[in-house]
Design goal:
about 180 residues; mainly alpha; 3 helices; about 65% helix; metal-binding
Length: about 180
Amino acid sequence: MLSEGDKVSSSVSSSSISYHTLRNNPICNCGSPASLKWSNTPRNPGRSFFGCSKYNTKGLPHCNFFIWADSGKEIENDLMKLEIEILMKKEELQKTHEELQKTHEEVRKLLQLFRRREEEVRRREEEVQKMMEEVRRWMEEVRLRDGEIVKREVEVRRQRTHIRIYWAVSILLYLYLIRSH
C-alpha cells in the first residue's frame, strides 16, 4: 500500500520508472519520505522527480530536497566515472602543464646560454678583427723594411761593384807603372 507521499496517478503507476522509484523511494533531508512529482518546466516537461513531501504545505518547514526520478544508480555511476575521468584528465593536464613549464624554463635557459655565447663569439670576432688589423700593419711595416733592406742591398752591391772596379783599375795601373819602369 502506498503512503500519502507515494500517491501517483494510475497512468504513472504502470510505468517502470514509477514502479522503480516508488519501490526505492528516497528519504528527504528532513527525514520524511520524498514525493514523486512531475516537472512542468519547458526545459524538462513531464520529467518525474522526487521532492520534499512537505513542499507547498502551509505552515510546514520543508528541506528543498530534489532528485530526478530517472537518475538511478547507473547514471550516478556514469557520472562518478565521468567525474573520475575528468579528475584524471585534470591531473594529466596539470602534469603536462608542469612539463611544459619545465620545458619552457629549459628553453629560456638555453636561449640565455645561446645569447651569452653569441655575444662571446661577437666579442672574439671583434678581437680577431683587431688582431688582423694589427697583423696587417706589421706586415706593411715588414714590407716597408724589406723594401729598405732591398734598396740597401742594391746600394751595397753597387758600391761593391765600384770598389771592385776601383781595385781592378788600381791594380792595372800599378802593374802598368811597374812594367813601364
